[in-house]
Queue: 2 jobs
Job 1
Amino acid sequence: MTITKKAMLLSFLSGFLSLGLEVIWIRLFSFYGITLPQIFSLTLALFLLGIACGSLIGKNLCQSGKGNISYIGYAFILSAFFDCLAITMIMYFPLEGMLGMLGIFIISILFCALVRGIVFPIVHHLGAEQKKTGAAISNVYFANVLGCTISPILIGFYLLDIFTTQQTYLIIILITLITATFCVPTKWLKSAVSIFAVLVMMTTFILPEKVIHALAQKKDENGQDLKLEKLIENKHGFIQVYLNSNNDELVFGSNVYDGMLNTNLNHSRNGIERAYLLPIIAPHAKNILVVGLSTASWTRVLTSMPELESMTVIELNPGYPQLAGMYSEMHKFLQDKRVNLITDDGRRWLNKNPDRKFDFILMNTTFHWRNYATNLLSKEFLELTKSHLNPNGFIYFNTTSSFDAYYTSKDVFPYVYSYVNMSLASLSPIPEITKEQVLQGLEKLKWEDGSRVFNSFEELNKGANNILSKPFVPYHNIDFLKLGRPLEVITDSNMITEYKYGFFNQQ
């Protein structure tokens, strides 16, 4: 094999491994950073800065006559060492507090990228050692770009459904070490690197999941540690289930609170009264759409509606149906013949099915400041949902207390109401809710086996009081003055809840 072909192969592997590592760092950092949109930008900036600094070192090596394959091998060994050190720090020596762990991430990403960046100028230097320099460098660069392209596709679409994030990270280290063994010149170093590679390979498949567990540690409002009961991981993200001191099972999606596994209105620490409001407002609903399954608690409540004929549930992450299947109460929802569970993006599915109409649409999916939240809160999305409603239909969605979300609702729908943190945007007015109406609505609710949801008048009355304890507020009575600024319409273009008024500037 000519030196140029070797340079192309090493350039391909360098790009493949570097971008693969970047994908994993973005995934880990985003998990710790509760999927804030700024995390991607910060990770990318750190990685590019590290690559730039590493390239400067590589340039100096080339100028000093050390720009050869041996030094590429040394760089790969050093890369593997720093990669192992970084993940070990996260798993076993996490610094207390947000700033401490943030510092670990910043330093780890920067140095891991820096060491890998050393290879980039060396492979181009090797590729230029012939007469047709321009063509050679172009081929080497093409190989690098090809590796950079294949890696995130392979990892993001396939490997993360087969291996955990931790395993994928260690596999990248393993490939790095295997590559290094073919580059280093001496037998003893080849043997040492081979032993290192074997240890990494054994660790990949023997070591239990520790990275996400270390990053997922949480405390309750009293400062007590929450017990991580379950962890579901796939290419779409992570789902965690914690057990608190009250034996409540709390569900987190990618490290952000999703809800509680609970359908008991009289045990409403998860605000389940918001779901029970729907049978009161729309007692005759026959065909409904739910965007986002989450814990399945809300959808389970809706199956008790007496006139329900069809419920379409759109959920992007197959981990949530998997989670629901682990609990007998929620599993009943999955077995309900009226329920059609579809794995897809909610917005994409609505665009693909323009003729489908529903009596109402429920969406209790995400915090307004999270990455991609605009896709489910914008004026464009609400207009899309409006086109899928039957006459007198409505959409009921979680604003997570974003006043701009209510304002956007009013820009699209003629009638808007607030209940707790939910926006009910309707095509027709909804009259004031009475105690008698609530009691009558709750009394009609039955599970699939015919048993009543409320077994006594005491339960029924307490549940009704829970619902009525939260005011159902017409739009003109919502107190927007405490916001302290003019309201703005959320659009696909401005993404104000993610950036302008996001996590770091919540107003």
Job 2
Amino acid sequence: MVALGVNLLSLENVDTMKKSTIWILTIVMALTFVGLLYVQIMYMEEMIKMREQHFSEGVKRSLYALSTALEQNETKKYLEEDLMLVDPNLFASSDPLGLDKKGKYGLENDYKLSKPKQEEMSDKFGEFQEALKGQYLYQKGLLNEVILTILNQSSTRPITERADSAIVKTYLRTELDNNGINLPFEYAIIDRHGRMVYESENYDSSANKEEIFTQTLFPNDPDARRHYMNVYFPDKDKFIFSSVTFMIPAFAFTVILLLIFLLTIIMAFRQKKLSEMKNDFINNMTHEFKTPISTISLAAQMLNDDSVRKSPNMMQHISTVINDETKRLRFQVEKVLQMSMFDRQKATLKLQEVDANSAIYNIVNTFKLKVEKYGGCINASLDAEDPIVNVDEMHFTNVIFNLLDNAVKYRREDTPLELNVVTRNLPNGRIEISIQDNGIGMKKDDLKKIFEKFYRVSTGNRHDVKGFGLGLAYVHKMVTELKGDIRAESELNKGSKFIIILPIINS
């Protein structure tokens, strides 16, 4: 099932799938996995309950058989002792019906009896039945009286004599084995007040009361003289759970498959998001390349016109246009080439000592014209006293330029742009470079994603903001490679602030 899900949600197919389809598959398969786990858990619980019930019934049967065996053996012993003392002549045979050697019922071997004789014999047989019945009832009552007397007398003997510990252990072991319970056990004999009479070697009186089985040893004893046997099994839990151990691997495999499925879903959504961002990137790239290419193409067509070639001013203008558009196109190509850096584990950097204040001052002066073009201003407060950093100068310059250019792109139309660039030293040998603007700002959701590749902040109804979504991702990549940190602070419609922290070279 998971293999099917992975196949359906393979990264190759995600691009063509709708998010709704992925969500439906996710919900269906998640419910399937949850249902499977639920069935497995319920099955394990039922197996454990059945095992516990079977175990309890087996122990109770064994204890009852033990109690019955002890009482029967005791009764048999006393009966045998009393019989040894009885006069043997008491049970001498008699002839209550007057039988003699002539034959049955005092008759010779003559089966042809007269009618009076038959009636006489019938009366004698009836008298015999009544006499035998009366003798049986008398003997039964006498026997019951004797047994009750024996039981009453035996209850006065010490329990240690009546239930020897070795015999009790042997009997119980035998009965447990007969019921399929071959676990070691601990036991103790207690009186009706809970006082210990004797116990096994490893008996723990603090054992869980719910795990102890109790049986009356001699049920016919008077209440005041009754004793009880407590039994518990130290390895009971292992015995119970041994019946479901085969389910543990199945349960574990199901959990692993569920985790793999969830991971696949997460990757599918990430791939879907990346696909959308790549499509947006391609659209933006097409638009960015189309304009300069069209301009260069138009200029080339104008060069075919004789009247244009004869005009020096026109030739100069066309040359300037072609040169500017070529630079613009080259810049866009460089932007695209930056993307290759994100697929490398380590960027190739040419590190050197650079004065951060000096480098930022030159960038600000160069960028001032672009800011003033939109009616804005840029201020630099380069207050860092130790500005020497070990960086790649080209990439360091590109980082600052990208942040400034980003501020221009996302400026507010109703307020003149204001940029503030500040440097200052921090403790532990670090320098802080902050670039703050008063632009449109960002939402909290955007703030969490701005350093992701291809991610572009929504600008509402504005369509003049162009780019590939690589600028801030490139900035983050470079700052990280330079062993620095970067974070952003922003508030919607109030502006943003980017803070770069780099280690300095102590002079």
